[in-house]
Each structure stands twice: as structure tokens, then as C-alpha cells.
């Protein structure tokens, strides 16, 4: 009802408290380590609904130690990027897809509904204020991290009566700068039917660190997540996975696993499918892909390329997979690889060439 | 190494900052809503290891907005209780089991190792300082919530270089005060093989709220979590599950699902198994239990009682299960029920009768 969950109205209510001392902007840094001068915070409580959105100097949050996010991971996030075009104008890449996914995550996490376009309006105002942080060079950009946490100040697993939506922005730097090596072991599962793998909830990530460290101990950079008895290929690290191959019927195909509840509906994933379908040069399919099918294709030289996609990494060529004590060497990337073509095309769109 | 993760030493280092204004202690309140006057905090960082443990006035935490716990649920907790015995002395119930489980959760979450007995020492000091909060009456007690969160102040899914271990304490009140009604639907899964269901990590809980609300919409209090094609009975809400029945071979049996990675190793669960095995009056088994087996037993009047167990709820009789549009009425609880006998015996141990 409007009484318990009025959508916040940005245009009318947004309050801005500018920082009195701006930070110096460092040169290229690691992803996610240097934040801009301001942040957006909007509080919600069950009695009064959404409170006045506030843009204020970047700084620590003050949270009750029983806060639902800290105990029960009632939390979710989004990731999107803003680019400075060749025409000097700033552009967000498909932000409505992020707002839509954020709404779905909020519903799944039992956090309150919010008005997507009003939140996007607040984010645009934040970007405007910190616009000098958006890099001027090439495909460099600023990474935007909307975060939504339950802040109920009492214990017990229950729907929170308080919540905080906040947005921080950081230098994107380079996420992965070389081709990726993956490690796969069916003893770890990232997501499962009836779970939350298709939402960007915090709980999907913390449980993956242990496997990621094991991948590292084998000299690999990320985990390739398998699923089920037939070892379906699902995601790689925090990326969606694509195969560019000649399929079992001899047709050229770009394939990625379908959104069956265990796969994160990536914005870059969707954009790649949209692009490739527009090209109409080969089959583009959302279908199950097993490790057995990949191995057969590799053996029969039907695999052209395997790559991952995500907002942070964009498009990332996969060079090898260590699985069942075998190190599978995948076809190399070159300028004719599909991932190179997609990366170039995405950049052209993002900087509006 | 000792350099990167020296265990903190409580006896030598603990610093106490007493609150200058103590709260009034309210009468019976809801579980987890009223906290004591002090809390324990211990910081860790990868360079210097564990810092000085601090007991300080209960209050908000100041956290970086990129904090790993808030984005990626790099977090875990424990729950244990302190009782005031008939002899007026305070007793923790099997706290080493909680310390042991907390260590395992920390390993799985990629949070640093800690010295279990030193942490327990710090917790005992905290209890001593807030000892007036431990109720004087019967089975009432104070609930202790150790919490351990990653506080890395940068984005990117990675092992945190900073962490905070803290302990808060609250009035326990009554968690469930009547017999429970459960709702089961295989479309939701709590935990799965290769996941984190056997650890007390935050991500196991936030994802369950949605199903809990759906249970509520059917007039039920908690979810009965099923697993797999054969609808195995795994947990109920945040409780372990027990069947007291005449099994398929005609033998009286107390049964609970085995610790196969999808089941939380509850301290109350273990204590019930220990007690029942000591009695040696009927079979005590950790075995798979399916919804089909439960329905058969119910139809053939072989079910004596179904109950849940947990630190918060202790032992809780289950009155009904709504499943596949059928409302299964389970045998009533009376003073001869196993759950009543176990509850009485546990209380006797906890208050040292």
C-alpha cells in the first residue's frame, strides 16, 4: 500500500550535501578500490516508507550490529558503468536492465519495491556531481554499484522493517587483463534450482570464495561452475559463459546456458545475444551445454572460442580449463575471434562512435 | 603464518570500556529485540593479524560502504545461550561446539582462523560484565550472538583483507510459543550438495525469507525444506528435524537426516542424539527421511511425533504440514511426548538441577 511503501520521489525531494574537500583522482588503479567523492543513500522503513534521498560525501555507514544484512545476508547489489563518449557526453549502458534486475532481486530478498526510474534519476544526479571522475580515455569508465541492504535492528530470520539503498561509484580499472584460465570441479555448486542464483543477492557470492581459492591453488584464475550429473557448464567466476562453435549438427552457433533459475541474467549476456541475433550470421542459441559436449567439440576441432561476459570484465576470452586433472587448451583469441569483434562493437556503442 | 594471522590473546590484551549509562531491563520481550549494555569487538587485518579485543558500550558499527559482508555476504554467525542455574551460577550450554562450528564456517567463508578458547574467554568476560541481564527465572536465558564479517573496503569478489568479529547479547524471550505448522513445496531449496548449507553463513538465510512469507500466506509458520527428486525432509525453518516413529521394520526409532553437507550440524540436534543414545530405549538413527515415508507412517499410524530443534527454539513440536495441497495433521504433543521429555531433560542440564 502507499502507506507502507510509498515510492521515493527524487525530483521533488533529493537533498544534496556537497563534500568540502574533494579527493585527488589517482591514475589507473585496481578495480573497485578508489571511490568518488559522493554517495547516494535512501532509507526505508515499514511505517513511513521511503525517506528523502540524500547525496552526501562518501563515508562510512553507521549500522546496528544486529542489522539483517550482516547476519542473514538480506542484501543485493547491481553493477553498471558510465562511459564518456567521443562526443564528451556521458552515457550509461542499458541502465534500465539493471534497474529491472535490481527490482527482481529486491522482491526475492523481501526488500521493498522502489520506483526504477526515480532511482535512475537519483543515480544520474550522483554521476553529474562526480562527473569529473569519469575517465576521458577510450573504453575506460566509472563503475556504479547500487546496493540494497536490510537494516532491521533485531535478530531472528524475518522480513526486515528497515532497509537502506545506497549507491557508490569507483574507478573500474582493469578487471581481468589477460585471457582467463578456469578450474572446474563438480564438488562445488554455485547455484541450484529453487535457490537465488538468478538474482544478484550477496549470498550467491560469499560461498564461492572457497572454491575460487582452490582454483588459485591450481594456478587458475576463476572457477568454471558445473551443475548436475551431466556437468552442465553454467557460469565462470562471476561471468556468463558463451561457446562459439560448430554444433553437433555441423552448424556454426553461438550458445550460452538458458535462464532456468541457476543463471544470472547478465546485461552483457543479453547485449551479446541481441548483437549476434542482429548480425544474423550464425545460429544464436540459449541451450544447455555440458562438459562432455565441450570436450567432444574440442577433440573434433569444432570449438572456435569460449568466452565469458559481465559488466565488470565486459568480454573475456577463456584460454584453458583445468578439469578432472586434464588441462584443456582452448583455441586462442585473435583479432578475428568473436570476442574481439563483440568487444569492439560494444565499445563503439558505449562511447557512441 | 604467525605474521599474517596471529591468534588474539584475550587474557593479556582484552580492553574494557564500561558504559556510563546502563539501560533498564524490560520484562519479557520478543526474541532478539533488546540488547545488553556491552558488546565485544575484535578487528583483524591481513598485515597485522588480530587486534586487541575490546569490550565497549553496545552501539552502531561504522562500516565502509564497500564492506565485503554488505555486498558478497562474507559473513557468519553463531547462537548460544547462557543460563542461570538453580544454584545461581551462570552456565553456557556446550559452547565449545559453537566455537568449533564457527571455526568451520570461518574456513568455508575464507575468513581468518581464530583461537576458539581465547574467543570463548572473551565471551565469558562479556557475560560477566552484563551478568545482571541473565534472567533469574526457570528456563529463561540470555542469547549470545557471535558474528564474523568481512570488512574489506573494496569491491570485487575476493578473500577479504580485513574482518571484524563481534559478539552481541540479547534477551531470548520466546521464539515459538505454540506447536509449529509447516509448509512444504519442492520448488524452493534451502541448501544443496556443493554449497554452504552445513555452515552458519548469512547467505543460507536471506534467500529463505521469500519462501517463509509464502508459508505465512498459507497460514503456516515455517517452511519445511525438501531436497531432491524423492522429497527428502531436511530442515524446518531454521531448525533440525526429528521423527519419533515406528520405522518400516516395526522398530521404535528416533531419526534425523544425516550431516551430508546440506544439513546444519545443530548443537541441540547433537545433544538430542547424545541424550537418546544414552537412554538406549529405542533406535537412534541419522538417516534420510522422505516425505513419502512420512506420509506412509502417518497413514499406518506409525508416527509418534515430529519435532524441530535449535538453539533459539530448543525443542519444538510440529503440529501440521501443508504439502501438495494436503494438510497433514501430525500426532499431538502431551507430557508423554518425546519432545516434552527432551525439553525437560535439557532444561535440567542447562540450569543444573
UniProtKB/TrEMBL annotation, chains A, B:
A Pfam family found in this protein is Aminotran_4
Catalysed reactions, as listed in the record? L-isoleucine + 2-oxoglutarate = (S)-3-methyl-2-oxopentanoate + L-glutamate; L-valine + 2-oxoglutarate = 3-methyl-2-oxobutanoate + L-glutamate; L-leucine + 2-oxoglutarate = 4-methyl-2-oxopentanoate + L-glutamate
Gene Ontology BP annotations:
L-leucine biosynthetic process; L-valine biosynthetic process
One GO CC annotation? mitochondrion
Matching entries from InterPro entries are given as:
Aminotrans_IV, Aminotrans_IV_CS, Aminotransferase-like, B_amino_transII, BCAT-like_C, BCAT-like_N, BCAT_family
PANTHER family from the UniProt entry: BRANCHED-CHAIN-AMINO-ACID AMINOTRANSFERASE, CYTOSOLIC, SUBGROUP IIII AMINOTRANSFERASE
**UniProt name for this protein:** Branched-chain-amino-acid aminotransferase
